[in-house]
TrEMBL record:
Boundaries of the shown chain within the full protein: 60 to 402 of 1082
Annotated Tr-type G domain residues: 8-224
Protein name: Eukaryotic translation initiation factor 5B
Regions annotated as coiled coil: none
Superkingdom of this protein's organism: Eukaryota
C-alpha cells in the first residue's frame, strides 16, 4: 500500500534507560495504573506493553493547544528493564520499536545503562526523545500537577530555574561526549539533527503532555511510510508464559496486519516450527478491578499495532524474540514452516 496519512497504525515506542530512572513510573503516570509499586523490589523483570489511545492523548494535551491532527490510532509503548542483567530484554524491546523514549534521571545524568540503551538505538538508527525525569526532585520545586513543562518552569523561583539550567547543561554535555546533539524540545529548531529533551516528572505528571504530543506528532510527521498500515502480519513473541486458565500462552506485539481467532499460525519452537491454531486473542481487561484479578478481554480479531496474549495449544517450546506467521488458506504450510526455521 502507498504511504497514506489516513491509514496509519499506532507507532511502537520503546521506553529505555538506566535502572530506576522512572520508566515504569512514567508509564503508570500516563495510564493511571500502578505497576511500579507491585514489582518485586521495584525492579522491572520482563517486557510489558501499554496501549495509549489517541483520544486519551488528545485529552491530556489540550493545554498545549496543539491544533495539529493526530492521525494514528494511539501509541503502543513497550517497557523494558534497566537492570544491567536484562540486556537481552532491552535488545528485544529496541529491536521492535519505531521510536523510543530514553529516560534520564535529572539528578544522575547519563548512567551505564543509559549509554548502553543509547548504543542499541544508534545501532538500529532508531529516533528517540529524551525524557529528563524527576524534575520535581530539584530543591524547592513548585508542583503544577500534569502541567505542560514550560508553564511549570515559569512558576519556579530563580534558584530552581538555575538548578534546572545547570543540570540540563550537564546532560547536554554528557550526550555530546557520546557524539549526540541534544536540546530542550522547545528550543530545538532542527529535530532531524538534534535530539529533543522533554523534562518530566512521573510523580507529578509535569511534562507528560509535552512528551506524548511530541512523540505522536514527530512519528506521524517523519514516519508516514513506515507507519502506513498493511495487511501482511508482522508479529513478534515477547514472552512465553503460563497464564491462569489458559495454559502456556505467548505475549506478542502485532506490529502490522490482523490476527483472528482460529487463525492457523506457525511459531518458532526450540524443537522446530510449531503449527497451531489461535484459541483466544486476549488483552488486559480495561477495568482495573478485573485487571488486578488477571482477567482478560477476548477478541474475535485484533488489528495492529497492539500487544496481545495468544492462547493456543502446544506453545510450551515457543522461542521469545522470534516472528510468528499466519498460514493463509491458499498458502503452502511447508513453505511457511521453512520461514519459521530462520532465526
Ligand atoms: P527499572 O525498570 O527497574 O529499570 O526502573 P524504572 O526505570 O522503571 O524506574 P521506576 O519506575 O521503577 O522508578 C524508580 C523509583 O523512582 C521509584 O521509587 C519511583 O517512585 C521513583 N520515581 C520515578 N519517577 C519519578 C519522578 O519523576 N519523581 C520522583 N520524585 N520519583 C520518581
Ligand atoms: Na525500578
Ligand atoms: Mg521499570
Amino acid at each position: 500500500e502507498a504511504p497514506n496519512e489516513e491509514n496509519l497504525r499506532s507507532p511502537v515506542c520503546c521506553i529505555m534507560g538506566h535502572v530506576d530512572a522512572g520508566k515504569t513510573k512514567l508509564l503508570d503516570c500516563i495510564q493511571g495504573t500502578n505497576v511500579q509499586e507491585s514489582e518485586a523490589g521495584g525492579i522491572t523483570q520482563q517486557i510489558g506493553a501499554t496501549f495509549i489511545p489517541t483520544d486519551n492523548i488528545r485529552d491530556r494535551t489540550k493545554e498545549l493547544k496543539a491544533d495539529a491532527k493526530l492521525n494514528v490510532p494511539g501509541l503502543l509503548v513497550i517497557d523494558t528493564p534497566g537492570h544491567e542483567s536484562f540486556v537481552n530484554l532491552r535488545t528485544r524491546g529496541s529491536d521492535l520499536c519505531d521510536i523510543a523514549i530514553l529516560v534520564v534521571d535529572i539528578m544522575h545524568g547519563l548512567e551505564p545503562q543509559t549509554i548502553e540503551s543509547l548504543n542499541l538505538l544508534k545501532m538500529r538508527n532508531t529516533q528517540f526523545i529524551v525524557a529528563l525525569n524527576k524534575v520535581d526532585k530539584l530543591y524547592s520545586w513548585k508542583v503544577s500537577p500534569n502541567a505542560p513543562i514550560v508553564n511549570s518552569i515559569k512558576l519556579q523561583s530563580e534558584d530552581v530555574k538555575s538548578q534546572f539550567d545547570t543540570r540540563v547543561r550537564d546532560v547536554i554535555f554528557q550526550f555530546k561526549e557520546q557524539g549526540l546533539n541534544t536540546e530542550l524540545y522547545y528550543k530545538n529548531k532542527n529535530m532531524d539533527e538534534t535530539f529533543s529533551i522533554v523534562p518530566t516528572s512521573a510523580t507529578t505528571g509535569e511534562g507528560i503532555p509535552d512528551l506524548l504530543l511530541l512523540l505522536v506528532q514527530w512519528a506521524q510527521k517523519t514516519m508516514v511510510e513506515k507507519l502506513t498500515y498493511h495487511d501482511e502480519v508482522q508479529c513478534t513473541v515477547l514472552e512465553v508464559k503460563v497464564s491462569k486458565g489458559h495454559g502456556t500462552t505467548i505475549d506478542v506485539v502485532l506490529v502490522n496486519g490482523v490476527l483472528h481467532e482460529k487463525d492457523q499460525i506457525v511459531v518458532c519452537g526450540l524443537q522446530g516450527p510449531i503449527v497451531t491454531n489461535i484459541k483466544a486473542l486476549l488483552t488486559p481487561h480495561p477495568m482495573k478491578k478485573y485487571r488486578l484479578k488477571g482477567k482478560y478481554m477476548q477478541h474475535k480479531e485484533i488489528k495492529a499495532a497492539m500487544s496481545i496474549k495468544i492462547s493456543a495449544p502446544d506453545l510450551d517450546h515457543a522461542v521469545t524474540g522470534t516472528s510468528i506467521y499466519v498460514v493463509s488458506p491458499n498458502e503452502d504450510l511447508e513453505h511457511v514452516k521453512e520461514k519459521a526455521k530462520e532465526p
